[in-house]
Design brief:
Blueprint: H1 4-24, H2 33-46, E1 51-56, E2 62-64, E3 67-68, H3 75-81, E4 89-99, E5 102-110, H4 115-121, H5 126-134, E6 139-141, E7 157-160, H6 176-186, E8 206-207, H7 210-220, H8 224-247, H9 254-267, E9 272-273, E10 278-281, E11 303-308, E12 310-312, E13 315-316, E14 319-324, H10 331-350, H11 357-374, H12 383-386, E15 387-388, E16 393-394, E17 423-426, E18 429-432, E19 445-448, E20 451-455, E21 460-462, H13 471-477
Parallel strand pairs: 1-7, 5-6, 7-8
Antiparallel strand pairs: 1-4, 2-3, 4-5, 9-12, 10-11, 11-14, 12-13, 15-16, 17-20, 18-19, 20-21
């Protein structure tokens, strides 16, 4: 039996080709370390004098027992570093600091190497890897944070996102739990329940508000490298919608429809879905964020609402189409669909630099509300005639119509005034569930049309045009044959 030292040495040797393999097979269109460094420099330029910004990696989320969910990095942390591993903290300083006789203005603490865990989970960058791959001049490991000599009281502002109390304490030294605990101690953070931060006079340099405002400004306007990834994510998602139109037929399950979308995502090497896929047929489409996707047999004559987005190298699309399961809209379905399309076109006409989300929403709402009055579904456009007393929202158009997309599906960005190179959705919808106070012929008609737009000075560019939007175009696409029609799997009792 070998001793522990020999065992660990053997595992470390095994890991050498693992690390090399990971480097060899890294996608060639990831954001560069220069991109992330420039984002840190841009944030530093916006920071107030004598301040420090502190960012923590996302927690590892437990699925059950000893199985965790696939790790997803905090978008701010990824934006500034490109680092995709957990248990890390980043400090960005407005002014130069000194460490061991050398000056620096940023420092990252990453996971320490652990030969056994890397055998199971894959190679870690470590501090040397962080310097090389992430372009940091100063990088240390998580356990070093406790001995790291820093006096947070000397800064006028210590900016960070407040903690939510959702981080598990693991056996790993220098894990996220330890990093947060160490920061709280060093920064004289008060003992409090999550979300109830109150500061004493001697703690008034702790700032949990400013940093988010700065990140909203930075992340809302996309750089050319980000736009390239977003375009690819959007195109993949739109192709998924198009191919499902060809494959759709009565008797499919919602899960099968979801699976076709997500297969296409993977076929184009999108790593994840940007959010839980929404596939709702009939009444299920009237549930705005329906994610059960379990209806075993979609019925002839139903509409199916499909809201899905591929995440490609961290950047997420958000595309929704509503189509007739049998390939042909009924008279009432087509009327409602075309009304939503008309509303989206009205919103699209308003989308340009200088407009606001409120401007776009109002353009879509005016079309929908008046259209529903003309159809006799609303009595009038008076607020009380359109409001659902249970929710306090417009009964049949209960949500907003715009949000930023990027590293989050609901990405950070300002909404007061749109600027060139923002990427936003326009997604009006009408949802008329069974039992609604209108003629039953309109019941169980859910329609949402959602597309992704690049804001320009003169207007906007539709990014998701690979997926048909007009009702006639959808019906025409659904007449085409699908490669998925050729798949025949054995029956299971």
């Amino acid at each position: 039996m070998m001793n522990n030292l020999a065992y660990i040495w053997m595992i470390a040797v095994w890991l050498l080709p693992v690390s090399a393999f990971a480097q060899e097979h890294t996608p060639d269109d990831l954001l560069s370390s220069q991109f992330h460094r420039e984002r840190r420099e841009a944030l530093r330029a916006m920071m107030p004098g004598n301040s420090v910004a502190v960012f923590f990696a996302n927690p590892v989320r437990n699925r059950a027992n000893d199985v965790d969910y696939i790790y997803h990095q905090d978008p701010n942390f990824y934006y500034l570093t490109g680092h995709r591993e957990p248990h890390a903290v980043l400090l960005i300083f407005k002014d130069k600091q000194r460490l061991n006789g050398k000056s620096y203005d940023e420092i990252i603490f990453v996971r320490a190497h652990d030969a056994l865990r890397e055998l199971y989970e894959g190679a870690r960058l470590g501090k040397a890897g962080a310097k090389k791959a992430l372009d940091f001049k100063v990088a240390l490991e998580g356990p070093d944070f406790e001995s790291y000599n820093i006096d947070f009281s000397k800064f006028d502002k210590v900016m960070f996102y407040d903690f939510e109390g959702d981080v598990r304490n693991t056996e790993e030294a220098g894990d996220l739990y330890d990093l947060i605990a160490t920061f709280k101690k060093k920064a004289n953070y008060p003992d409090k329940a999550p979300g109830t931060l109150t500061l004493e006079p001697h703690q008034n340099n702790l700032d949990t508000q400013t940093l988010d405002s700065l990140m909203q400004q930075r992340r809302g306007i996309k750089q050319p490298e980000e736009l390239a990834l977003l375009r690819k994510a959007v195109t993949i998602s739109a192709i998924g919608q198009r191919e499902v139109m060809k494959a759709m037929h009565p008797g499919m399950s919602e899960a099968e429809v979801q699976g076709i979308h997500e297969f296409i995502f993977k076929k184009y090497r999108a790593e994840y879905e940007g959010y839980p896929s929404i596939v709702g047929a009939g009444h299920n489409g009237c549930v705005l964020h329906y994610i059960d996707n379990y209806k075993p047999s979609i019925e002839d004559g139903e509409l199916i609402l499909m809201d899905l987005g591929a995440e490609y190298h961290g950047y997420t699309a958000d595309v929704t189409r509503t189509i007739p399961v049998n390939g042909k809209f009924s008279k009432e379905q087509k009327i409602i669909y075309d009304l939503v399309y008309k509303a989206q076109e009205a919103g699209r006409a308003m989308c340009k630099e200088g407009a606001t989300f409120a401007d776009i929403y109002l353009a879509t709402a005016n079309v929908i509300n008046q259209g529903l009055v003309d159809l006799g579904i609303y009595k009038s456009t008076d607020k009380e005639d359109m409001m659902d007393s249970r929710t306090g929202r417009n009964r049949y158009y209960p949500h907003g119509c715009c949000h930023h997309i990027g590293l989050d599906v609901h990405d950070k960005g300002e909404t007061d005034t749109l600027k060139a190179n923002m990427v936003i959705t326009i997604e009006p919808g009408i949802y008329i569930p069974e039992g609604s106070p209108c003629d039953p012929k309109w019941w169980n008609i859910p329609v949402r049309i959602e597309d992704d737009f690049l804001v320009t000075q003169a207007g906007c560019e539709l990014l998701s045009d690979e997926a048909p939007r007009k009702s006639e175009e959808i019906e025409k696409m659904m007449q085409q044959s699908s490669p998925f029609d050729q798949i025949a799997l054995p029956a299971i009792e």
